[in-house]
Amino acid sequence: MVARKGGKEARRAELGRAVERALVARGLEGLRLRDVAEEAGVTSAAVLYYGDLDALVHAAYQQAIERYSRQREQAATAFDDASRQLAACIEQGVASGPDDTLTRLLFEYWPRCLRDAKAAALDSALTERQIAVYSGILVLGQAQGHFTLQDPPRLLAASFVAMEDGYQMELLAGRRSRAEVITALRAYARAVTGHDLPDHA
Fold it and tell me: Residue 88 maps to which CATH number?
C-alpha cells in the first residue's frame, strides 16, 4: 500500500515497487492502471497523481536498471584481483531462475524498445553500463598479467553482454538453468582471456 505518511518521494518509491510487482505479474502489454492501483492499495486516481501509466512504467524501468547495474558493479569491485572480479561479475549478472523479479522486469520492458525511442535510449544505457563493467575488468586483468586478450576489451565486453542477454532469455523461459548459463559464460571467459576463472565465493 502506498504510504499515507512520509514525504512525496517515499510514496513515489512505494508506488514504483507496486508498478514493478504489477509488471511482473501482468506483463507490459497486459498492464492496466488499475493493476498498479490494486498493488499499491489505492485508487486509480491516486496513482495518476504521480503520472500516467507510461511515465510510471518508464520510471520503474529506470530504477530497475540502476539496481541491476549497481549490484553488479558492487559485486565486481569487492575484489582487487581482476579474475575474481570477472567471476563475480558473471555470477551477479545471471538471473537466479525463471522467477527472478529484477531480471524479468528488465526483459518485460525490452520489446517496447523496438518502437519507442525513449525506451530504446534507456535500454542502450543499460547495455553500455554493463559493457563498461566487463571492459574495465578485462583491461585490469590484462594489466595484472592474468588475461591475454586477442581482441579489444570493449569488443569482448560487448560480446559478453550479448551472450548474457541471449542466455538470460533462455533461463527466464525455463530452458536453461542458472548453472548452465554461468558455465557457458565462464567457458567464453576462458576462451577469450586464456585464463581459468577461480570460484569467487
Answer: 1.10.357.10
- Alpha-carbon span 142 to 91, nearest angstrom: 21
- The CA distance from 80 to 16, in Å, is 35
Domain tally, the chain? 2
- The pLDDT-based confidence of 200 (bands split at 50, 70, 90) is low
User: Is residue 97 domain-shared with residue 146, that is, in the same domain?
Assistant: yes
Shared-domain flag, residues 93 and 155: yes
Residue 33 covered by a domain: yes
Residue 105 neighbours by CB under 8 Å, 6+ apart: 20, 23, 24, 60, 61, 64
- Do 42 and 1 touch, CB atoms closer than 8 A? yes
Per residue in 92-137, pLDDT tens?
A: 999 999 989 889 888 888 888 888 898 899 999 999 999 999 999 9
